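Need tokens for this chain, all 341 residues.
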Amino acid sequence: MHVLEHKHQIARLKEELSSPKRVLITTHQGPDGDAMGASLAFYQFLKKMGHDVAVVTPNDYPEFLNWLPHNGDVVNYMRQKVLAEDLIANADYIFHLDYNQLRRSADMTNTLANATAVRVMIDHHPEPNLLVKYSFSDTTASSTCELLLTIMQAWNNDLIDSDIATCIYTGVMTDTGCFSFPNATARTFTVASVLLSYGIDRTMIYDRIYDNFSAQRMRLMGYCLNDKMEVFPEYRTALISLNLEEQRRYDFVVGDSEGFVNLPLSIKGIRFSAFFLEKEDKVKISFRSKGDFSTNDFARKHFKGGGHLNASGGETKMALDAAIRQFRELLPAYQKALNAL
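Here are the structure tokens for all 341 residues:
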């Protein structure tokens, strides 16, 4: 539902937050550019309104996002559990940004479930499943940042400044693949134009996101393409995987595999790509597609995940080899759909 249809909710929420409150902003595990951009933009916006605001993430996020304005104020639940739990327990309002299922907050799930705060969700993913007082859910938005900007404009446009616009632009740019994905609509480009009017440095933002990796990460990418990519032309599909030993070999840090799942889609004819990353206790999987093949449905049905039509994620407790084997064995059932695109 478009945020303009929520104007009455915005007005009610604005009234409730007309006096200082303790506000907590949360997002999903493994936060990406959209999650952190939205969280830090809204953090600054609410601080300007006089609220006592905190941002808590479930765990680490890529180093290439650490330059975002006020990144140093973020509380990491995995590393600062006592402080994070105190903030959650004492919040008057909790905002759930860029996720619509509580389980996506990982180790924070139970603590958040027991919180007594008023809950607000701002998100653009399909099939929301969060019990909240205020729900701003718009699957037509390219990103949570695009949706959040519209809310902030309706709330108090005068509070938006260059730092807030920089955070929002980061989320829009990363969630649209630099405006190349199908989710980048005419409205998205209008949003980008508005953000530029605040004097943001879009070249700097791009450089810090996409040209800020280590030499080892570049070598890792080459290794993945040369040694770890499997192509299944009959299914117009490809996969890449990395086990723990390979990650150690290349001094892997959080964020190093960002974008790897998209690489096989550059191959002529490939329409579906998967990336398997082994963790200590599970295997995380990213899915990307072109056309009408739903990675969301595929992830939900087989790998306890979900997301968008062309970009989703999932996970499994199976061993890496078993997870890859299951993926390969599933492909024949989808051959007709993959070749119909």
